């Protein structure tokens, strides 16, 4: 054999020897499978606990009554009484439109009415002695009634030249100046009720059956830590198809120091569960379609699909999939595989 052939044969033998794996043989000659065990895993024993189910939602404070004021007639403003940000009483005159032309027409009609009433009276006396026909008297009566109707219509039009407060409230910012020409489409200002505020918010559809009219709730506003209380007044009675939420309206018990339009963080207690099963949030393994936890069954890892409920202070309610007394893994879940041996370093 030549030197080159001998060198090639040595290299092949060396490579073949390096490719062999050295594993301890199992009884019967088969290779042994390495035992899978994960240490330093922490667990949590599931125990029934009392749970007050609370829903947190975002809401807005709205006035009990809010009206954008518009005049009923067109014309030039001759009197403007809109104290911005001030309280007004029901019936207070806020705006007056020029009405001298209407007043002149009213005086003319009142004069014509007086003459028509005199004519009606005279023809009535003549009718008694057959001095005029019944038809002539009836025409005089009709003329008198027509003048009276025209006067009533004119007085209605005169009333439309005045804008009065429809209820007690606080005025917003005025949007016109004295002398402006206004129409029924012109927004003058906004009137808001100062007596009470309402709170509008939404809750998920699954809680709609747990709401009760008259139920109490708490809320806080931006920039304030003092909780305020309100009472559920009504619901929309219809689930929003886009958000799957139910619109709720509550009446604020004490609105002092609160402004309409403020953002509110709402906390609503929906009931108490004395036997709720709670586990730490970190024990949940989110999946594409469901959620899982890892339980210790006989010292081995078992992956279980669960359904969750209320979240509260680092804990989450499990409504289906576990039982009281089960031990759930809370750390090291990334290193666990089904049926892996679990050695807990800590159990709460």
Could you name the key traits of this structure?
348 residues; alpha+beta; conserved putative lor/sdh protein from methanococcus maripaludis s2 fold; Elongation Factor Tu (Ef-tu), domain 3; OB fold (Dihydrolipoamide Acetyltransferase, E2P); six-stranded antiparallel beta barrel; 3 helices; 20% helix; elongated; disordered N terminus
Describe the structure.
By secondary structure, the chain is an alpha+beta fold. The protein folds into four domains: 37-51 and 274-347, Beta Barrel (conserved putative lor/sdh protein from methanococcus maripaludis s2 fold); 55-65 and 196-272, Beta Barrel (Elongation Factor Tu (Ef-tu), domain 3); 71-93 and 164-195, RNA polymerase II/Efflux pump adaptor protein, barrel-sandwich hybrid domain (OB fold (Dihydrolipoamide Acetyltransferase, E2P)); 99-160, Helix hairpin bin (Helix Hairpins). It contains three helices and 21 strands. The protein has helices at residues 3-18, 100-128, 134-159; strands spanning 37-45, 48-63, 66-69, 75-80, 87-88, 93-97, 162-164, 169-171, 181-182, 189-192, 197-204, 216-221, 228-239, 245-252, 263-280, 285-286, 291-297, 300-312, 315-320, 327-329, 341-347. A six-stranded antiparallel β-barrel has the order 2-11-14-13-12-15. A four-stranded antiparallel beta sheet has the order 3-10-8-5, with no helix packed on it. Strand 12 and strand 13 form a beta hairpin. Residues 1-36 have low confidence and may be disordered.
